[in-house]
Design goal:
Structural class: mainly alpha
Helix content: over 70%
Distance between the termini: 36 Å
Number of helices: 11
Number of strands: 0
Length: about 270
């Protein structure tokens, strides 16, 4: 019988294994870059919008109010994002299960039950891929619209910001929940939040660069962040690659298990 100390060692071993996995590390990279993009938008908002409005306080006040109102609707975006991800997950699960036996409690079908569970695990990850790409492209579009010095265009920038922020944190929670065991979910999620806040401190030197050497022009910082955002697309690409390789592996495992179960039943019938 295992004691508490042995269970604790197993938990820490599993945790460090997860922390070293490419899935977790790429997710942290993706999340920290998007968080930095969002935080820098907030911290540089007043100087940026004042520069676009030529320091017209009435215009600045108007766009600040519009920005605040649009932010209010962020509570609508997150549930919609969750619903879309669930629909995508169901679609992928049903596609992966075409032609497979249905669930049953019969002993000889147990390998297929395990296979179906693994199919669902892969579908959970694969469902995130599309929305990670969409979220990244929304952040890129936000950066590009910020670089265009047209004041009226910033209504679009505000909307993209709200969509990007809602999707980013919802996707991170779902993704971490799907790649780590439930016993260490709290530790893994805390690790992602810690990494986000540590990298978030980079907004201060970037803001000082904008206000100092760049004379208040956000173009160069936005270009830098746009390039970094494009680099984060390696995250969904790797997840897609991982899922495409996991599916055949799971099928081979269950076919092998089913073959052994059939041989055992045949032997039992011959010897009975």
């Amino acid at each position: 019988m295992s004691g508490p100390g042995e269970k604790l060692n197993i938990t820490w071993t599993a945790m460090f294994k997860v922390f070293k996995s490419p899935l977790f590390l790429l997710n942290v990279f993706w999340l920290t870059v998007l968080h930095l993009r969002l935080q820098l938008f907030i911290s540089a908002f007043n100087p940026w919008i004042s520069r676009l409005a030529n320091n017209d306080q009435d215009l600045v006040g108007h766009y600040t109010s519009v920005y605040s109102i649009i932010q209010f609707f962020s509570f609508v975006v997150s549930p919609i994002a969750g619903w879309l991800i669930d629909k995508r997950k169901l679609h992928l699960t049903m596609n992966n299960r075409k032609g497979e036996p249905v669930e049953t409690t019969l002993g000889f079908m147990q390998p297929w039950n395990q296979y179906i569970l693994k199919v669902m695990e892969v579908a959970n990850l694969e469902a995130c891929v599309l929305y990670i790409v969409i979220t990244t492209l929304v952040a890129v579009a936000m950066s590009i619209s910020m670089m265009i010095p047209v004041l009226e265009l910033q209504y679009l920038t505000f909307s993209l910001f709200v969509v990007c922020r809602s999707l980013t944190y919802a996707l991170n929670t779902m993704f971490v929940a799907n790649i780590v065991p439930s016993a260490i979910f709290g530790k893994a999620f805390t690790a992602t939040v810690t990494a986000v806040f540590c990298v978030g401190f980079l907004q201060y030197p970037l803001f000082l660069l904008t206000e100092g050497p760049f004379g208040g022009d956000t173009l160069y910082v936005n270009l830098f962040l746009t390039v970094m955002l494009l680099f984060t697309l390696c995250h969904p690409m790797y997840v897609r690659h991982y899922c495409s390789h996991k599916q055949p592996e799971h099928r081979k495992e269950v076919v092998k298990s089913e073959g052994k179960a059939y041989q055992n039943r045949r032997w039992e019938n011959l010897t009975s």
